[in-house]
Structure formats: C-alpha cells, structure tokens
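Journal club prep — side note

Before the paper discussion, L.F. wants everyone to see what a predicted structure for a comparable chain looks like in token form. Sequence:
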Amino acid sequence: MTQPLTQGDEPATEPERAIFLTAAALLEQGRVFEALSLLLSAGALAALLLVQGGLSAQGVLALALLSGFAQAYVALRVRFDAALFQALADGRYPAGLRDLDAALTMMRLRPSGKAGRPASGRALGAKGLLLRQALLVLLQLAFLLGSTAL
C-alpha cells in the first residue's frame, strides 16, 4: 500500500518518487506507439493519394488517418505526463502536488475533481492513457489492413 499523497510545499516521499519514476519510464514507451502510428499514417496517406480504390476503401483509409491524428493527440498528453512524472521523481518540481494540481486546473489541463489523487492513482491514470494510445495504433492498423480487403 502506498503512502498518502504529499501535499503543500513538501517534496514527494521516497515511495511516491518510486511511483513517479516508474510511471515516467512506462510513459516513455509511448514513443514506440508514436513512431509506429506515424508510419501507418504515412502509409494511409500514400495509399489515399496513389492507389485508385473504391470509395469504401478510401473511407477506411481516411479513418486510419483520423485514428493517427487521435493517437497524436494522446501521444502529446502521454509525453506531457511523462515529463511531469520525471520532474516529480527528480525533485525538480519542489512546489508540491497541491500546487501542481492548482496549476493544471488553472490551465484547464485537468478537471478540478481529479486534484488531490494519490501518486498510485495518478500513475494508474497515466497507464490508462498509454493503453489508449496503444489501442488507437491498433485501430489505425486495423483500418489500414481493412482497406486492403476492400
């Protein structure tokens, strides 16, 4: 069981730092999904421009491109979270999690209802974001492969 969330101006506890470091390392793996999605997007765009397929095949290729755009948005969020987790793990964000939550809320990067979550909850949320990124890449691949069947 993890310790409660550090609040205020206190730096993260050692167990929290371990969670933040692990989450940052996990989120860095999103770069693989990002690169794969870029390749799939390039393939879908090339197929749309070069291959004379039916209207349904072109629609599926367009869906592959849209999935790539959605993945790119999620990838931005994954990278942002990775940078925040790394800063928290390294102690480069000494203001404390309460101030971080206030900054994220003020910038409308996080709903106010998610403020004050424990380190473990934050890490699990970030893991879910990485899984969403992976699913979007799989969806993109499925659309691209499906377009070849049409």
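L.F.'s comment for the group: The chain has one domain: 14-149. Keep this in mind when we get to the figures.
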